[in-house]
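Q: Hi! First time asking for a complex rather than a single chain. Here are the components, and I think there are two in total. Is that enough to go on?
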Amino acid sequence: MRISDYIEQSFCNLWKKKLRTFLTTFGVVIGIGALVSMFAFGQGIQRNITDQFNKVDLFNYINISARNRTGEPAFSPDPDDPDAGEMGGAAAPVDADDRDAPRLDAQFIEEARKIEGVEAAFPEMRFPAQICLGDKEQFTLAQVLPADILRSGPVPLRAGRCYEPREPNELILTDSLLRRLGVNEPSTALGREIEVATLTLDFSLTNLLRMAFSRDGQGLPFARQSYRFTIVGVADRLPFGGMSDVYVQPEAAGAMRKLSLTSIWEFFRPAGETASYSAVTVRVRSPKYVAPVKKELESRGLRTFALMDQLEEMRTGFLIMDMFLIAVGMIGITVASLGIVNTMVMSILERYREIGIMKAVGATDSDVQRIFLFEAGMIGLLGGLFGLVLGWGVSQVINEVVNALMARQAAPRMEYFHFSWWLCLGAVAFSILVSLLAGVYPTLRAARVDPVVALRHD
Amino acid sequence: MNSDSFVKTENLTRIYSSGAIKVVALDDVSLSLREGEFLGVAGPSGSGKSTLMNLLAGLDRPSSGIIKVQGKLISQLNKQELALYRRYQVGMIFQSFNLIWSYTAFENVAFPLLFAGVARAERNERAGRMLAEVGLGPRKDHRPAELSGGEQQRVAIARALVNQPRILLADEPTGNLDSGTSNQIVKTLSDLNRNQGLTVIMISHEEPLLAEYADEVIRLCDGKIVGREKMR
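A: Yes, that's all I need. Here is the structure of the assembled complex.
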């Protein structure tokens, strides 16, 4: 029998039982639709995250943090940190190494810039700030970011321009913060004056006296300072691991009195010692420099962190997520394949005599089996194609709804589902495969029909 | 080719067993046909006529004994070879016609050609010609339900012969037909036998029909041949 005849036969036979074919196929459509949209969601999320990282080339950054030094309060987030506990003899050199570790200060940044492959080095500094625009106030974290780093593109601008190093009073804020401050159109904010207020610990005599006699509960030694800035640019908020809502230049930050969030101990440092940072970020020219630069920094006794290292871990995480989504999607497919088995068994019982006729006119067992397998495969093909369409349609609707909701929070538009060509092909192929597997038992039964029994007249 | 034994059985026996009970459906049947002969098989129901027919058609296998067709041992063939034997060497018609209800007359006739791997154009041509030969050219697009019993049996004959077999096996072909139509059908078989040299083996319990058309009639009872009669 020719392939084209098998296909035509199976199609004709299915067409004769439209309702049953439709219902069985619909089961497969739902199963494949669910599986495809689940998988596309997993793919979409993965792609968004890796794209985002690539876009802001997060893989080019190395984060350096200082180890705790004698004289500073012993604080370590890591219980295994040798600095925090008692030291064994074997680890003693590391300890010694630690004491030699450079302070993360302006001089260190100068040195770091000279390492082969390093493009830029800047302190990781964030401080809490009260942002006032007109009569609205918002509390947020301000990030210190040099103009040259900003210009290299980690933060995409929606309107305006980067700040100029010559103009320390220029500032950039995110679209999201702007909305919270009551401005919906980013371009209208450009050039406006904005007030940034910081808090500092104030142990001055006047403040202490004020605190002592206060009756309104203002029992904290904080002082508030206000600085005026001009908005020159509006940035998109990063959807994942967004940095901060406000960006200022190191020159401006240096002039401000502030409470650094990442280095609260800074304020306890003895007078006369130069300012040091809790963390410094280094940007390398390309990801291939990450490993050598890390090595160089670590040999100086510094602790480093690069997202690059996390990539493998992230991939494992994605794999687990995919597995989970597929497992959920497989429930539908399993139910659908039982439907196929049921339909095929029914169909074979109904066409018992017809199978006898096939054999009487010269069909081999495998001819008979293939006729029915093609029917099962056809259900799989149709189910796969329409399932793909359904899955795609449903994902588009969900995507639109989620984006509409997210837009209210000023999150940038995102495609939460990703349909790659191999997902589409794979879904249809998988659907056919599952249907064929479901057809194996019924079609074997069909092939084994005894023509003498089937043709015996009642 | 030895024309004396175009179809030959020797000590053909078929025993059905279900559990401990054994039923001897066919018992030591030996017969021989020349090419182009019209053999009638008579006997009461349960005498083993249909069992003999199924064995000759390659739908069933004997418990012992042999079947030889055109010198080939049919009783030794495997399933695959039996299917090919049924496809190309024998055609079969039945009391209940066994047409596929959802197919048109034309599609029923063309059906065996599918398994033979014949291309569509040739299928159409051959099926059309066969239907015209049995006088049903104008009714080719009718389904079995729209045809009379006699017409249905003609469709079955056309289907049985579409692969040009040399042997036609007819299992009570007139059992569901009135006497006038029965006569016409058997006449058709007889014409094919005389004009085209088709070897015909027909089961019937209507002995006058057999007497009129068959060359030889054998009589079966309880699975044994109990009588042989040369008609001409």
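A: Residues 36-60+90-230 of chain B form a domain with the Rossmann fold fold (CATH 3.40.50.300). Let me know if you'd like any chain examined more closely.
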